[in-house]
């Protein structure tokens, strides 16, 4: 499948869609039946472009024990290896394959599909995004891969993956943090909320260690970053004012801006009230805004 065809149909061909295509039951054609095989485990290789790089050893050992006892209940999805006709490359199911090796299995059930490099990568990325145990950095890296490799916008990703654009934007910002801070998020020593608060800090790695050691809350972390920035004189008054906004307010601003296609700012001026400003670039945008606020179509 070409990249242009993928762009035309959009995202969403995840493992569930692939399985639906293959699950033909008793009505399966002879061609489809030939795709279902049991092959030696040494003929299966990992996909070098697989975006998932870390596998929990304890979780793998637990799965390996299950495979020894019950066998492989769900087949791997593979494709013929693009360089070696005697091998197959994993499209989905690398975790089961790794656990199968630990369990010293000699063969594994597979479903063979003809898929291009581009389609394989897209499936792998989307499946990673759909994993429940994906950490914020892994999710952000997957978003960036989809955007860079396939040219998808944040709005397109938000629509296809049923996530808010601000969620995607906030996660992508985490990739600007130092590697040491990103590693702390990956290992669970730091939450995504803590990491977002550290994005504007010049010494983010040092502050991240302090946050982890002292068990600071996200709000405490935001206040610490703001005070340090003000003390160092490293931010302007406008930037300092902006940094007092919590993550929820910033996300709401981003959502409204994306919806209206105009810049929206929210300022909390009291315990229960505040101001909302919308910036329009020309009279056409002003007219459009008036129609939206007036309920006119």
Describe the structure.
Helix content is 55%, strand content 12%. The chain is an alpha/beta fold. The protein has 3 domains: 3-121, Conserved hypothetical protein from pyrococcus furiosus pfu- 392566-001, ParB domain (Alpha-Beta Complex); 135-260, Arc Repressor Mutant, subunit A; 261-297, no CATH class. The strands form 2 sheets. Strands 1-5-3-4-2 form a 5-stranded mixed beta sheet. Strand 3 (76-80) and strand 4 form a beta hairpin. Helix 6 runs antiparallel to helix 7, helix 8 packs across helix 9 and helix 9 (165-174) packs across helix 15. The relative contact order is 0.08. Residues 1-34 and 234-240 have low confidence and may be disordered.
Give the secondary structure arrangement, pairings included.
Elements: H1 3-9, H2 15-22, H3 30-33, E1 36-40, E2 44-45, H4 57-70, E3 76-80, E4 88-92, H5 94-102, E5 107-112, H6 117-130, H7 136-150, H8 154-161, H9 165-174, H10 179-186, H11 192-197, H12 204-214, H13 218-232, H14 237-243, H15 247-260, E6 263-268, E7 274-279, H16 283-294
